[in-house]
């Protein structure tokens, strides 16, 4: 049991180091997309209606999240830095939670770690919306592996409401469920 705790501690250190190293461009390259997200969130706080008075092709999750942060900590450049730090911290906690609550081998943990940290390579501030999307997707797949299919679909839905391209991840779960039901299309449709 102590070996698992040491492995988890080492993995946490590696995740933290790689993430900090790769995420440094987040804080030096403020992007126009992030500015648009903050503008949209500010307009929502001023009673504008999303997709009627302010339109963007992104889902409402990023605007709701930033609107809440604007309301709590105010509007400033520091709020932008705080939000990306907060999103990054939630992403890291998600990875740590998934690694520590599944029975992955050390090799599988390292693969997940490399995969998760590769998201940060040469990214700028625009990437924060992707991190929110990945948080929801990682929880969705974690829940699916633990046989919590309906909750998994809920998290995929949140991911879709963040970025529409997450829709593609819904199909493998539906097809897998179809094959678990021994190709019974009626049970699959009933499930959906």
Summarize the structure.
The protein is an all-alpha fold.
Helical region count?
A: 9
Distance between the termini: 40 Å
Number of strands: 0
Residues in helices, as a percent range: over 70%
Strand content: under 5%
Q: Secondary-structure element sequence? A: HHHHHHHHH
**Unreliable runs, pLDDT <50, ≥5 residues?**
none
Strand count, sense and closure of the main sheet? Answer: none
Shape: globular
In words, what does this structure look like?
The chain is built from 9 helices and no strands. With 192 residues, the chain is mainly alpha-helical. The model has no long low-confidence stretch (mean pLDDT 76). Helix 4 (77-100) runs parallel beside helix 6.
List key phrases describing it.
9 helices; about 190 residues; single chain; mainly alpha
List the helices and strands and how they pair.
Blueprint: H1 2-23, H2 32-45, H3 60-73, H4 77-100, H5 106-118, H6 128-145, H7 149-162, H8 170-180, H9 185-191
């Amino acid at each position: 049991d102590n070996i698992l705790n040491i492995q988890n501690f080492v993995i946490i250190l590696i995740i933290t180091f790689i993430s900090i190293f790769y995420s440094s461009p987040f804080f030096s390259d403020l992007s126009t997309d992030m500015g648009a997200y903050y503008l949209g969130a500010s307009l929502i706080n001023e009673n504008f209606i999303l997709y009627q008075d302010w339109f963007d092709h992104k889902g409402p999750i990023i605007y709701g999240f930033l609107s809440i942060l604007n309301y709590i900590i105010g509007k400033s450049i520091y709020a932008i830095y705080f939000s990306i730090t907060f999103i990054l911290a939630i992403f890291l906690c998600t990875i740590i939670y998934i690694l520590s609550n599944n029975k992955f081998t050390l090799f599988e943990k390292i693969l997940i770690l490399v995969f998760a940290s590769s998201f940060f390579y040469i990214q700028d501030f625009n990437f924060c919306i992707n991190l929110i999307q990945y948080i929801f997707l990682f929880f969705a797949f974690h829940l699916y592996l633990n046989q919590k299919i309906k909750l998994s679909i809920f998290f995929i839905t949140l991911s879709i409401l963040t970025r529409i391209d997450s829709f593609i991840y819904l199909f493998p779960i539906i097809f897998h469920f179809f094959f678990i039901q021994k190709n019974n299309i009626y049970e699959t449709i009933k499930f959906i």
